[in-house]
Design a protein that fits this description.
By secondary structure, the protein is mostly helical. The protein has four domains: about 140 residues, HUPs (Rossmann fold); about 150 residues, Rossmann fold, CATH 3.40.50; about 50 residues; about 90 residues, Arc Repressor Mutant, subunit A (Orthogonal Bundle). Helix content is about 50%, strand content about 10%. Helix 3 packs across helix 5 and helix 16 crosses helix 19. The longest helix has 22 residues. The relative contact order is 0.09. Its EC number is 6.1.1.17.
């Protein structure tokens, strides 16, 4: 019987959920969900000074927006400190760890002497093989007994076999002198206890794997599969940072990118499936595999993100898009749409979502729906409504009023009217846009008429025609 895949995302709640963290969460989610496995969430809140409830909430909100639902309860690493301590004491009982009474001054003196002699500065404790009977009644740490000879090989699904000489591994502290467990111990114990089968994380944790493997082996636990993914770089090839505009996931939500587009783009950052750029969640779940992750850092490209988001907005069903739009308005503190405006927005969605890359762009195109009479044209649109244009609108309105209210009929009436005036339709379109939306860039005037309906359209045209120049 094959083993159930279990992955985890384990962020530290010391700040927002950044793009790199979101991609790590996505890769873990895709790998587990695509194989009928479990995706777990652990908050690594052992750094009590820097961990905040607000940061934890930001992580949860970011994952909720991205649609990365986890299985089971959120696990707090800090709440499991007693279990971590128990493992350290078990290793001590098994002879795989030891009490070290060396003071900070003694450790520093050892390192200074090593530097002066050109030796490794990794601390070698004189207490490693000391007889417990000789132990003083004094503060101490508990250290693991790392192998002194040979090498540790990390079999990594992305990086390949990574060999670290054991003389480069120190006897890592497991419990500090105050009895608190260190991060490395906590991670290894939690991953084992949670049944994690695949550890997929950033390659900045690669060296940590060798140290965490010491604990697994000393406890006789089976190792997880490791996959250390390259970090994300900015367009200049340097590690992504705030100077590249690297923001928290919540900021991308507030900028109006659709979650599906964000998932698609993040999946393509460092992973590929042939030449496929645009794909659905279902395809990502079917295709995603660790073998498709490259060894080189991916480069964050806002233009590619926008392009994919535009494709996702265009392909999302209207009702689902409206639902996400409501969420965008809420997260940005904008007033909600009334039921009447919501209904109109859904009717208009077919002509709003083409070529809109973000929700603000979609809302800009939806001004004709959102605005109420009397329409106040902006500067560019107002320039289209001179005396001549108003007179033309006044003449055109009765023709439209008597037309059967279909797109084809309205278009035919308008074209015929323009021809009768010996003008191109483009000359008519500008004033119509200004009258119906108060904007110069809008969906097709005929799409707007159909969405607004006969009465509202005629009323807006009459308003514009009757206003003095």
């Amino acid at each position: 019987m094959s083993q159930t895949v279990v992955t985890r995302f384990a962020p530290s709640p010391t700040g927002f959920l950044h793009i790199g963290g979101a991609r790590t969460a996505l890769f873990n989610w895709l790998y587990a969900r695509g194989r009928g496995g479990r995706f777990l969430l652990r908050i690594e809140d052992t750094d009590r000074a820097r961990s905040t409830p607000e940061a934890t909430q930001a992580i949860l909100d970011g994952m909720a927006w991205l649609g990365l639902a986890h299985d089971g309860e959120v696990i707090s690493q800090n709440a499991r400190a007693e279990r971590h301590r128990a493992v350290a004491l078990e290793l001590l009982d098994k002879g795989e760890a030891y009490k070290c009474f060396a003071s900070q001054d003694e450790i520093e003196a050892f390192r200074e002497a090593a530097r002066a002699e050109g030796r490794s500065t990794l601390f070698q404790s004189p207490w490693r093989d000391a007889d417990p009977a000789s132990h003083p009644d004094a503060p101490h740490v508990i250290r693991i007994k790392a192998p002194r000879d040979g090498a540790t090989v990390i079999r990594d699904e992305v990086q390949g076999d990574v060999t670290i000489r054991n003389d480069q591994l120190d006897d890592m502290v497991l419990l500090r002198s105050d009895g608190s467990p260190v991060y490395m111990l906590a991670v290894a114990v939690d991953d084992h206890d949670m049944g994690v089968t695949h550890v997929i994380r950033g390659d900045d944790h690669l060296n940590n794997a060798a140290r965490q493997m010491l604990i697994y082996r000393a406890m006789g636990w089976p190792l997880p599969v490791y996959a250390h993914i390259p970090l994300i770089h900015g367009p200049d090839g340097k590690k992504l940072s705030k100077r590249h505009g690297a923001l928290g996931v919540d900021e991308y939500h507030k900028m109006g990118y659709p979650a599906a587009g964000m998932r698609n783009y993040l999946a393509r950052l460092g992973w590929s499936h042939g030449d496929d750029e645009f794909f659905s969640d279902e395809q990502a779940l079917e295709w995603f595999d660790i073998k498709g992750i490259g060894k080189s850092p991916a480069r964050f490209d806002v233009k590619k993100l926008e392009n994919l988001c535009g494709q996702h907005i265009a392909s999302t069903p209207d009702a689902a898009l409206l639902h996400e739009l409501h969420g965008f308005l809420a997260v940005t503190g904008q007033p909600p749409l009334s039921p009447a405006k919501s209904a109109l927005m859904e009717q208009a969605m077919h002509c709003l979502k083409e070529r809109a890359k973000t929700f603000p762009e979609l809302l800009e195109k939806a001004e004709f729906v959102l605005a109420d009479r009397p329409i106040s044209p902006d500067q560019k649109a107002a320039a289209q409504l001179d005396d001549v244009s108003r007179r033309i609108l006044k003449e055109l309105t009765p023709h439209l009023q008597n037309a059967s209210w279909t797109r084809d009929e309205l278009e035919a009436e308008a074209m015929q009217f323009a021809e009768s005036k010996d003008m191109k339709f483009g000359k008519l379109a500008g004033p119509l846009r200004a009258a119906l939306a108060g904007r110069s860039v809008t969906p097709s005037v005929f799409d707007m008429m159909i969405v607004l309906g006969r009465d509202e359209t005629i009323a807006r045209l009459n308003d514009a025609a009757c206003e003095s120049a």
